[in-house]
Structures are given as structure tokens and as C-alpha cells.
Structure prediction request, 285 residues.
Amino acid sequence: MAIKPTKLLRTSRTLSSLPDFLLPAFQPLHRPFPRHSFTTSAPRPSRVGAEPVPLPPDVHLRLLDPPKRKGAITRVEPPRVLEVEGPLGKASVQLPPFVNFSVDEITRKAHLSVLDRKVRDQREMWGSCILILSSPFALLAMAHEGLKVDGPEYADSLRFTGTTRKYLSNHVLGVSEGHTAILRLVGVGYRATLEPTATTVAPAYPNQPFVSLKLGYTHPIEMGVPMGVKASCPLPTRILLEGVDKETVMGFAAKIRKWRVPEPYKGKGIFVNDETIRLKAKKIK
Prediction:
């Protein structure tokens, strides 16, 4: 857009009346700020998404088409759903529209690829999933980054190709062998039991078990086991969590760990799997 002469003259007068230290703030920018890298080495894209996912003989994959919404018109293509079924249960992964999926029945391996590697949004590994945005500032930020924004409520951004591959690998392992998390309670008097009922927490579903923790507080801590997770206490200081969904299992383990985060002076707390902590020297006054 061309600048009018009167506006240009008015701008020059304003700049001439300003002090010297304020002139850089009012001068127009002819080019965007340069992006400086944190390293001098050449960028190398990740190849995690191109690695095949091995499939056990008793695991089956099925690609489901997205459900059609009646009367809804949108430019955003909904993601497809990949269902993973095995002896321990079912799980599902959402595939973006630009991701191709194929299974080699001879080698029993699943492959993921993008439609066009020349497209920046498809080859880069920084995408996200479909977001529901209600703030106009979030939409402006998405548009500034080069992402497609369709309407005031929905924004179509991209999912990690490598992350999608990792989700698929985790679900294949979950439905075939299962995911586990072992929690160790380290501390004097720390105990854990599995109870069928709770007095401080209402059950979220019928016959929900509860993990009761004694961690030095004046009252026991009761936490409901999420649906799809099996909890057991083989020892008073051990909690074993098993489930198909790794995110659910590790998320519940993180909630339990939050009550007693390992501290570095006495080494007490709740440790998940092979977690360790380096002890610090005691503070001597």
C-alpha cells in the first residue's frame, strides 16, 4: 500500500521533533527481525517417523474413516482413526490427513509417511494436534506461524509425524504386552494399600478400587484408580500399575508421586520405575 505524501510529511516532522534515542522505535521496519540459531551446526531433520513399527502376530490394525457431521461445513479435513486391537484390549490413534499409513503383511511392519515432503508444514516435526481456540490472540499467533486458521473456533495445525509413530508403537506394545509402572515408597512409615472403598473420595465408576497412602500426613491419602488401569501392592512399600494406555498409567503414577516428590537431602519420597536422585550434603551452620 502506497503512503500518501501528506502522511509521509507528517511522519518526517514527528521524527524530526523526537530525541535521538527514540528514533529507532518509530522508524518503520523494512524487513522482519532475523532469526538467530542457538547452534552453528547444520540442521538435521528427525527420521523417527520413517522407522517402521513391528507388529506382533496377534495384533491387528484397522483404519476407520472420520465420522461425518450432518449440516457441518468446514474446510478442515478431520483426522482419521487407526484402531489397534490385541489380546489385552483396544486402543486408537488419530492420523492427520497428510499422513499415509500402510502395513506390510509379509514382514508384519507398519509404515507412516507424509503426502508431500516438499511442503514445509508436512516435513517439519514441530506440529501439534487439532486445537479448539476461543481467543483471537491465539488465532493471530497461529496465522503468524504460517498455520491455517479456519473460523473463530477451530484451527488446523499439524501433528508430529514422529509423535504419531511413537503413539502407534506404544499402543501396539500396550495391547500385546501392556505397560507397567513400579512405584517405590522410601521413608519411615510410608505405606500403601489397595482398598475397595474410600471415605474422602467418591467413586468415578462402579467397583472402582482406591489406593490408600500413608506418607506422614495427619490423614491417609486416597486416590481412585483410573479405568483401564490395574493396581496392586505386592509389598507395603511397592505399588504396581498395569494398563494398555501408557499415558494413563504414567499419568496416574505422576499423580501419586506428586504427594511426596523425592528430596535430595535424606533421599525420601516416591520413586517411579528406575528413578534415582543424587544426595546433597547437609547444610551445616
In short: Confidence is low (pLDDT under 50) at residues 5-9, 125-159.
